[in-house]
């Protein structure tokens, strides 16, 4: 099955079918490298513009310097606009609308680097939701296929709102997970990721654990954890809505990998997960006691034959005795011993009555 | 990374944020002293602003002597500015605010005029104490955002120290700082506590989205350190025999 992530990150072809892309990071694993790749890919492919709205992360964390200076990329570095600390703090919402409307008619990708920072600055969940919904509508109604890309840090109250079908019927939702989560599930729950275990079984185990963010955080930051900043990551891709071939599918969920050197890749090609795919065959049997003895335990062929002819005592239990030639059925055969006085004439004579 | 080349020389570069976290059993004071005084010694015109929340200037003066930096001369020539953050922070009010502290730092950095020949380093020690004093987590996180944006605008490098009191479970402020930082120096104790030979361990992580150039050290492969009179020595795990 072709991987979904490269086509999601590529520019315009995907934008036609999936105008909304949600990138979800967590404290345990960030997916900002995917934004970097998205901006990088915009230079190849169909001409379009990327509008990069930086609210929390500096532009250098989101894209390469060469991409930032490209004419296709418009950077709005609003990281210094902090409520209370900026002398003339203005609400970013109106300015975002005006920039999007003023953008050229080519296909446009609007990237907001941190919607949870936006929520914190606006201060109201409903107003943030309203803003994002209007922004998505503006992006959707542009003449050329355009896309809205939002990056969010879980846990956030915005995530359940943005993933509802009410917000956008079609959705590409990419969540970053640390590698430690997969190794933990493989060792503690004995469920390695597909293809080593059945897909349904894996999702049944994976989804509840992944949704508990503190579990992943504990694996990364707790005792025995490696700490943050891992360059390779596991990517959970959920696609809702029609795909490029026009085939309607309900919801498709896959697990793919991201390598710091090679970008999107299969899970099986991630170096750190290599140990999950080799099945270790556990040797159940102990050492054979019949080896290395000073005497011979084997049977000669004649002994084998004689042994095979021995009738087994209970082998025919329950079957009728057709093959037996006994005339008397149910006869009692009695051998008297020395104390018995058997007198055939009067057997009861020795009784003292 | 080999212990001989630790800590890396150009950490942090201008416009970068180095977050140093430590725990009660493994304080990272030595890293702050090393960062500041090595910065001052490296370049002739290098400048440094130290904003101390709960610290004491006498310790800085004493450590400067041990690391052969003329503290009084640096103060006099404005190469080193020591700021008592509590004099500027407005924490006594009903809703404590850090805006006045931010303005004081802004004025100081604007006056420093950092350029490649005279790089400026701003050290804030420490940001957890601001939250402990009653400033809300939202306010401290906004302050951190504003300070980092200010440093990027003035081409200064920024070092923030944060005390971790819940090891293994990042608190809300640390969550925010981890999103902002370019690099994270993680100083943590041995699981068996402090020993005579090894005082703690140190790891180096990157922040999110950073295509960094320094070689990282994970917690499981952390370097160990032992404090000395004028700093610390670093050695790989299990090779303590070389320094003991």
From TrEMBL, chain A:
Pathway: tRNA modification; 5-methoxycarbonylmethyl-2-thiouridine-tRNA biosynthesis. Keywords: Cytoplasm, Nucleus, tRNA processing. GO terms for molecular function: tRNA binding. The keyword Cytoplasm applies. It is found in: Cytoplasm; Nucleus. Residues 316-325 have a biased composition (Basic and acidic residues). One of its GO terms (cellular component) is nucleus. Residues 337-353 have a biased composition (Acidic residues). Residues 310-353 are annotated as: Disordered. PANTHER family: ELONGATOR COMPLEX PROTEIN 5 (PTHR15641). Belongs to the ELP5 family. This is Elongator complex protein 5. It comes from Obba rivulosa. The lineage of its organism: Eukaryota, Fungi, Dikarya, Basidiomycota, Agaricomycotina.
UniProtKB/TrEMBL annotation, chain B:
Pathway: tRNA modification; 5-methoxycarbonylmethyl-2-thiouridine-tRNA biosynthesis. GO terms for biological process: tRNA wobble uridine modification. InterPro entries: ELP6, P-loop_NTPase. Pfam families: ELP6. GO terms for cellular component: elongator holoenzyme complex. PANTHER family: ELONGATOR COMPLEX PROTEIN 6. Belongs to the ELP6 family. This is Elongator complex protein 6. It comes from Obba rivulosa. The lineage of its organism: Eukaryota, Fungi, Dikarya, Basidiomycota, Agaricomycotina.
């Amino acid at each position: 099955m072709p991987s979904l992530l490269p086509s999601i990150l590529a520019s315009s072809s995907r934008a036609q079918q999936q105008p909304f892309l949600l990138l979800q990071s967590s404290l345990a694993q960030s997916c900002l490298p995917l934004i970097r790749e998205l901006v990088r890919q915009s230079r190849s492919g169909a001409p379009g513009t990327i509008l990069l709205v930086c609210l929390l992360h500096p532009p250098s964390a989101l894209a390469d310097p060469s991409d930032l200076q490209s004419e296709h990329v418009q950077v709005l570095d609003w990281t210094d606009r902090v409520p209370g600390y900026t002398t003339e703090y203005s609400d970013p919402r109106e300015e975002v609308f005006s920039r999007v409307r003023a953008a050229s008619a080519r296909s446009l990708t609007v990237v907001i680097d941190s919607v949870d920072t936006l929520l914190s600055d606006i201060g109201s969940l409903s107003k943030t939701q309203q803003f994002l919904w209007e922004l998505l509508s503006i992006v959707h109604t542009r003449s050329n296929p355009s896309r809205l890309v939002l990056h969010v840090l879980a846990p956030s109250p915005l995530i359940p709102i943005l993933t509802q079908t009410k917000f956008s019927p079609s959705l590409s939702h990419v969540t970053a997970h640390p590698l430690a989560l997969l190794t933990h599930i493989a060792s503690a729950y004995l469920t390695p990721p597909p293809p080593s275990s059945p897909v349904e079984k894996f999702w049944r185990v994976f989804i509840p654990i992944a949704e508990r963010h503190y579990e992943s955080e504990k694996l990364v930051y707790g005792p025995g954890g490696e700490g943050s900043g891992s360059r390779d990551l596991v990517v959970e891709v959920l696609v809702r809505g029609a795909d490029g071939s026009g085939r309607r599918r309900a919801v498709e969920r896959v697990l793919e990998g991201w390598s710091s050197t090679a970008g999107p890749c299969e899970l099986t090609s991630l170096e750190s997960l290599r140990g999950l795919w080799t099945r270790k065959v556990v040797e159940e049997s102990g050492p054979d006691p019949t080896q290395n003895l000073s005497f011979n335990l084997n049977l000669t062929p004649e002994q084998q034959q004689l042994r095979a002819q021995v009738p087994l005592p209970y082998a025919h239990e329950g079957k009728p005795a057709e093959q037996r030639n006994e005339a008397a059925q149910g006869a009692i055969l009695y051998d008297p011993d020395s104390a018995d006085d058997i007198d055939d004439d009067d057997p009861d004579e020795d009784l003292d009555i | 990374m080999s212990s001989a080349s630790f800590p890396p020389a150009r950490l942090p570069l201008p416009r970068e944020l180095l977050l140093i976290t430590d725990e009660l059993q493994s304080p990272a004071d030595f890293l702050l002293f090393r960062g500041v005084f090595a910065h001052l010694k490296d370049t002739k015109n290098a400048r440094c602003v130290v904003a101390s929340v709960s610290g004491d200037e006498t310790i800085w003066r004493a450590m400067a002597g041990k690391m052969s930096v003329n503290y009084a001369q640096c103060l006099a020539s404005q190469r080193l500015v020591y700021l008592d953050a509590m004099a500027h922070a407005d924490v006594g009010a009903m809703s404590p605010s850090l805006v006045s502290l931010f303005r004081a730092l802004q004025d100081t950095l604007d006056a420093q005029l950092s350029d490649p020949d005279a790089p400026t380093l701003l050290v804030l020690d420490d940001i957890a104490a601001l939250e402990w004093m009653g400033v809300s987590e939202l306010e401290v996180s906004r302050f951190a955002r504003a300070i980092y944006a200010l440093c990027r605008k003035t081409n200064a490098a920024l070092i923030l120290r944060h005390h971790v009191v819940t090891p293994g479970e990042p608190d809300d402020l640390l969550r925010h700082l981890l999103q902002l930082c370019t690099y994270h120096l993680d100083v943590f104790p041995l699981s068996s506590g402090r020993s005579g030979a090894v005082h703690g361990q140190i790891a180096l992580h990157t922040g999110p989205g950073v295509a960094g150039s320094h070689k990282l050290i994970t917690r499981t492969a952390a370097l160990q350190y032992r404090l000395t009179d004028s700093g610390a020595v670093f050695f790989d795990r299990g090779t303590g025999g070389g320094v003991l």
